Amino acid sequence: MYDIWREETARIRTATGSRIDVEQVAQTSWPAVRQQFEEKGGEVLRWQVERDQVIYVGIYTAEWSASARALLSLLVSAPLEEPSLALQLTNWLIASQEEPLPLPPKLESRLAWKERRALFLLQRTSEPQADWTGILPLLASFFSDPKQQQCLYLPVSERDLFLLVPFSLFPDIDLDRSAQETEQALLEWAAGIHELFAVEALEEMRVIVNSPLNRVHELAEHAKGLTALASALARFRPRVLVAGAWQFSLEKWFGSLPVSLSGSFQRAFSERFPQSLSSEQSETLDALFTNNLNISEAARSLFLHRNTLLYRLDKIKEQTGLDPRLFSDALLLRLAVLFQQA
Question: Which of 122, 141, 290, 328 is deepest in the core (most CB within 10 A)?
Answer without folding.
Answer: 122
